[in-house]
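#onboarding

Welcome to the new folks! Below is a worked example of what a typical request in this channel looks like: someone posts a single protein sequence, and someone else replies with the predicted structure as tokens. Don't worry about understanding the tokens yet, we'll cover that in week two.

Example request:
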Amino acid sequence: MQKSLASHCNQFNNMISVNKLPHLAFLFLVVSLSSCVDDEPKASFMVEQDPENKPLYATFTSTSKHAESLRWHIEGNYVTSPVLEYRFDAAGTYNIELEITNEDGETDRVTQQVEIPFIDPCGDSWLAKDQAVLDQYFADHSLTPLRDELERQYVITQAGNGKKVTDNYLQIVDIRSSFYYLDGTLVYQGPVSSDEWGRYTPEARAAIKALEEGAKANFFLPSCRAFGANSFYGVPPYTPLILQVEIIRLGGIPCQC
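Example response:
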């Protein structure tokens, strides 16, 4: 249709001299030529990524022509913003579709594959970035952190009663662990856990050994030691967190009769 219309317009221009037309014919010519404008929709977009600083993110910008409206189709989601910054759940290859519509209701769509690279949260580069964030936190709050046997940095926020766990892994220990963002927002508060302290994870055992009964401490975790490249409890990947550990009770040693 577009090709035949263009041909019609060219023939019309060759046959008629505008300065010789009466007024009505000139108006007809203007209307006819306006129908020759190419407003066919053409979908296209560009992708920008900065994985070293914002892993799992990509920014999509429509460069489409004659788009009265548009929508992106990403991971089963539909979004209508012309510029879209999107965080993927994991590294991988994704198909991104953009569909546009012009003012006449005509549509066009384009699909492009996008590779989201994996950035190791435990790699030297990302560990350095997280440590810089934690160091700034310590400076802003005038804190001098201690280190446990796993080299995790921590600050005691509530002193204990002086009682420490014994070397006997059968001793019962009651603890509670909670996660916070660095701004103090609670992410998850766990229940009180009661078990032989030798049955806890190595991370929990290190905290138990470092603290006294009744004490609370904040352990500052780079994302490598938090949730890494995954998302839990709504926490974005690559997020440093505070792990608060409370030693509620150091119990006795069960009888081995």
